[in-house]
């Protein structure tokens, strides 16, 4: 019975630990979301939250909709 408990505990740990720590790179599916939306945002290195009057600012700061 002790062997079954050890195997059960090991299985629980494997299922509870995130995949990226066990199998490095498991979160590479959504890396395309890190791309900048426009050329101006890429030129500003992604610090595009305070830009006003540009439609691409909605992707970085939804409150900029009030200034359009």
Query: Radius of gyration from the CA trace?
Result: 22 Å
**Beta-strand content estimate:** under 5%
Mean pLDDT: 75
How far from one another are the termini?
Answer: 67 Å
Question: Can you count the beta strands?
Answer: 0
For the largest beta-sheet, the strand count, sense and barrel status come to:
none
- Share of residues in helices: 25-40%
What's the helix count? Answer: 3
- Overall geometry comes to rod-shaped
Low-confidence stretches: none
Structure class:
mainly alpha
Order of secondary-structure elements = HHH
Give an overview of the whole structure.
The chain is mainly alpha-helical. Helix content is 35%, strand content 0%. It has helices at 2-16, 19-22, 39-43.
Keywords:
68 residues, mainly alpha, 0% strand
Quick recap:
The protein contains three helices and no strands. It has helices spanning 2-16, 19-22, 39-43.
Topology (elements, then pairings):
Elements: H1 2-16, H2 19-22, H3 39-43
């Amino acid at each position: 019975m002790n062997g079954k408990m050890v195997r059960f505990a090991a299985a629980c740990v494997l299922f509870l630990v995130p995949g990226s720590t066990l199998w490095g790179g498991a979160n590479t599916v959504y890396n395309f979301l890190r791309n900048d939306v426009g050329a101006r945002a890429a030129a500003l290195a992604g610090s595009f939250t305070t830009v006003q009057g540009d439609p691409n600012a909605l992707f970085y700061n939804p409150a900029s909709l009030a200034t359009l």
